[in-house]
């Protein structure tokens, strides 16, 4: 370990980051900012070229910050053989679900296959991608052992779950505490030393499995509570109550209550995914996570609930959804970002399209509908104007970007379906969904 620690202490350590997306780029920025050499790896050549040109592929990360990172020595590459140059290898690749809602670790496995020949003594390997407890030992460890390395002696293996919240101005990579679990005590010591070099607070846990479970618990906690409040929204709506008023009043209690807010579903890289990772792994132990799965079912059903409310509202106006012009406002999964991963807005758009609606969208953060693994729309964002709003049979607010002109939307929409509680119930043209 002394060689690894010496390199770290002398800021001579070269850190390789695999996966240059919403997690990898901020991590590279932070590590580069403390004076360590950073090499970024990605299989998408266009993204590598963009970063090397000093341009940011992500809205909330500025071109200027990428240029600063380049000036500090950051380089992106598609050449995975350069992993041999790196002393620390940090994997931040996607871990989605497959068509059967089961864990898909193909990106992790592919990364390990590409770097396996370049593993060497005195390296540290850290997995940050969300996964099920046991992945580090069951998937990564065999690659290391096959390379003839002894984990804990001449090689260090850790798991440290990413905790990025894209677009959140209150928390940065540096200030978000970092959980680290090591395969051995020596691995944990090396992992703590690495992350302490650029993270304010490192939280050690007893094993890689414990660290993997931490990540799942964090996001399942959110999934369950969002599922609860989404179900409460449906009940409150049937009773003629404003769920947002109820939540805000409940939030005045100074203890024992944390406010969660309903919406058209859940999105992002963690909350829609993590529960399925745990339920899949739990079955190996003969367990069924009924409570977690029920929350997932409720959240997954919210896009259909939004469409059903839209159908009913159009019906009240003697209109059919088939052939109707429907404008979706906001297709990123959360406010003021361009992140489309698992966005419930896309699910709503697909259901609307299946019903025969003419679907358009407006999202200043997503000017052109991106290529996605499971979804395809040949659309570009339309301008938010009085004319465009007046041309719609229904306008659906799905993601409440702060740049939207809400007064214009309220005034010019014939039918306004609000999933975020942005508009007063006194509006004659409003339906809450």
Tell me what the structure shows.
The protein is globular. The model has no long low-confidence stretch (mean pLDDT 95). The chain has helices at 2-9, 24-33, 45-52, 63-71, 106-115, 135-146, 185-196, 208-238, 243-250, 274-284, 290-300, 302-316, 344-354, 386-390, 406-412; strands at 14-18, 37-41, 75-77, 88-91, 123-127, 155-159, 178-182, 202-205, 325-329, 358-362, 394-397, 416-418, 430-432. With 433 residues, it is an alpha/beta fold. Helix 6 links the parallel strand 5 and strand 6. Helix 8 (208-238) crosses helix 11 and helix 12 (302-316) packs across helix 13 (344-354).
The SS-based structural class is alpha/beta
Shape: globular
Spatial strand order of the main sheet: 3-2-1-4-5-6-7-8
Share of residues in strands: 5-15%
Low-confidence stretches: none
What share of the residues lie within helices?
25-40%
* Major pleated sheet: 8 strands, mixed
What is the C-alpha radius of gyration, as a whole number of Å?
23 Å
**Amino- and carboxy-terminal Cα gap:** 57 Å
Mean pLDDT: 95
The number of distinct β-strands equals 13
Counting DSSP H or I runs of 4 or more residues, the number of helices is: 15
Written as H for each helix and E for each strand, in order along the chain, the element string is HEHEHHEEHEHEEHEHHHHHEHEHEHEE
